[in-house]
Every structure is written in C-alpha cells, then in structure tokens.
Task: structure prediction
Amino acid sequence: MNIVVYGGSFDPIHMGHLTVANEVYQHIQPDLFLFIPTGQSPLKDRGARVSDDARVIMLNMAIDFLGFGEVERYELEREGKSYTYHTMLYLKVKYPDANISMIIGTDQYEALDQWFEIEKLKSMITFIVVNRDVDTQNLPAPFQAFHIPRMDISSTMIRERITHGKTIRCFVIDTIERFIRKERLYEAKES
Result:
C-alpha cells in the first residue's frame, strides 16, 4: 500500500495547497492520500487562527472538490506539540505494510535539521519536496524533488486579505470562500 501524507495548518486550505495535492496525487496515484491538519507545531509560535473543526470542514470541502483524499485527525487529538516523527510512528502502526511518502515544501526541507528525530524519520519515509520559492532542486535520497508551476499563495496572505476586506476569490474554492464569509473567519475583531 502506498500512502501520501500532506500535513499543514491549512488555515485556510487554498488553491496552492490543492494544486500541490492534485499534482502529486496524479503523478504517484497512491492507494491513500491523507491530509493531516497540524495540532501545535513545535516550529511555530502560534497555532491555527480558527478552530480545528473549521479547518476540518474546509479540508473536507477541498477533498470533495479534488475527488480524493481523507482527513487524518491524529495530530488534532494529541495533547501538546505535534511532531511529525510521532505521527509517522502512529501511521506505521495503523498501516503496517504501507510505504509512506510525505509532501513538504522547499522551505521545510531547508529547516529539517530542526525537526525532532529527523534521522529516524529519513529512514521511515520518503520526502516529496515540492519547489517553493525556487525553480529547480537537486536533492539526495530519501528526498524526491517534485516540480509544479509556482503559485505564490499563502494562508497568511489570504487571512490578511480577509482582515482588510479584500476579495479571496480565485485563491480558495467557492465553497470554502462562502464558509469563511458565513462564519466570519479571519475577520478583524472589533474591540
């Protein structure tokens, strides 16, 4: 069984995420594609801006749009900081015969020396490194360079646009935009 894991805060999930997921899925054709929304990242000061439930709702909307994928809630249900190493141990127990590949961006690849138990992780999984802020990559095993057309979209940019009353059309799918607007997610709080 081949599993591709795509983790992130997905706060919110946007067209850049969907393009990465779709390109990798179409190229690899895994048996299972897991979106894993992060709990508390050890490398970020803040957690998600909206509730875990809101992020999962938006992920499920994205999965409906893509036509593949499942949400794995393991990191959301853990106490404390979420380490990729623990998540991969969990997946290895849940899917003992699986070959697991994990999508990361070039920015994450460059910070791997800060990851918990990175040497053990390298022996457990394959990393699919998607070009982010670079046009080409030459990487050693167990890293696979994966090239997609660059899309400079970020969740931070989308949140800022919402805070300033700007459109997010074409940056997220329509159902997610409607959900964000209906629930008033990411809007500036009045004092």
